[in-house]
Known about the structure:
Layout: E1 7-13, E2 23-30, E3 39-48, H1 51-58, E4 67-68, E5 72-80, E6 96-100, H2 103-107, E7 116-120, E8 125-126, H3 133-140, H4 142-154, E9 161-165, H5 172-182, E10 185-190, H6 195-201, E11 205-208, H7 215-224, E12 231-236, H8 241-245, E13 251-259, H9 270-273, E14 284-287, H10 294-305, E15 314-319, H11 323-331, E16 338-342
Parallel strand pairs: 9-10, 9-12, 10-11, 12-13, 13-14, 15-16
Antiparallel strand pairs: 1-2, 1-4, 3-5, 3-7, 3-16, 5-6, 6-8
Helix pairs in contact: 3-4, 4-5, 4-10
The site of NADP nicotinamide-adenine-dinucleotide phosphate has 31 residues, from helix 1, helix 4 and strand 10.
Amino acid sequence: MVNIPKTMKAWIVTRTGKLPGILELKTNWPTPTPPKTGEIMIRVSYAALNPGEIKVMAMAAPCRVNTIAGMDFVGEVIQIGPTTPKSHSDVRVGMIVGGTVPLMNMWRGAGALSEYLVLPAHTVVEKPKGLDESVAAGLLGIAGQTNAVIMRAANLHQGDKVLINGASGGVGCISIQVLRGMGVHVTAICSAKNEAFVRRLGAEEVIDYNAHKSLPDYLTSVCAEPGNRPFDAIFNNIKNEPLYTRSPKYLKPNGKYLDIEAGPFGYFKLSKWWPVILGGTPRTHINILSRPSSDSAKDAAAWIEKGWIKEIPVDSTFEMDNALQAYERMVSNRATGKIFVKVK
Ligand SMILES: NC(=O)c1ccc[n+]([C@@H]2O[C@H](COP(=O)([O-])OP(=O)(O)OC[C@H]3O[C@@H](n4cnc5c(N)ncnc54)[C@H](OP(=O)(O)O)[C@@H]3O)[C@@H](O)[C@H]2O)c1
């Protein structure tokens, strides 16, 4: 029987606004109440950070005060709520699981930057054996789950060609490896300092975004060269409207532009909906919004089992007490791979 203390350490979002003033480390935050039917309690070992968390914290969402920061986690299941004949979860006490905290649970006060976390059992996935616990949250959380949504929407085949804008970030560094696992040719856009990094992950061609005044101009000229063919898909992780509006010059007519950058606001992009007859872009724009799902986490775990993911690149790992520095690193927009916080 695990001894669960009444209070725990947790990073609390005390108000909405900009970091760092809105986050406080509390050492006596009430431990979540024991799991109810269908729920589990997890002792968190590591959290992984995402830029989206900062965007959510900045929004004036009044219900999001005094909640716990952090979404992606990995940790050990230490308690399972009462089972009923209908509960058929395969989660066991002692299992190491990972995932991301669903928004509803965040609003109710659950967060990855806390020692204990209670979540519905169906939202987590068992950590694959070949994945180190210290980096597992970087794959089983948002970065991996978003890739699962992108890959389903992209529906690519061996031999296809994909361009990734923002290839060195948390999402892009997984996309490269999954695409290479599928036999897809990858062209990565990143800065020169990250060229060796993205090549190590599997990118065959690299474009330094600082070396070209206009990426669409450069891509247009490369695509026009004899022997070069347009892309089957573009994965966009960085704000760059012209990359889409000028894509007919380098994206196949039936190619897809898969955009994660704008999150929920991407559905309202004018360029996406503007009719072609009135000057709109004749290419399919798909706004990707990843919703926490154990199915997506399972897809990500399966990539480890298939041997497609060779590494979860670690930009940096911070101790729990230094999570503010981890968020500062995230805000810098310079992370190469994922940023982790050691919670345990
Ligand atoms: N829609 C969704 O469901 C969803 C899910 C996940 C993430 N997102 C969003 O997608 C975006 C990317 O997420 P992420 O986790 O991959 O971010 P991240 O890890 O913070 O990305 C940082 C990387 O971006 C690169 N970068 C910065 N400026 C660049 C530019 N102009 N061109 C190319 N690369 C550039 C940096 O490389 P250099 O230092 O070399 O510039 C760095 O490696 C974020 O805006 C995030 O909020 C959305």
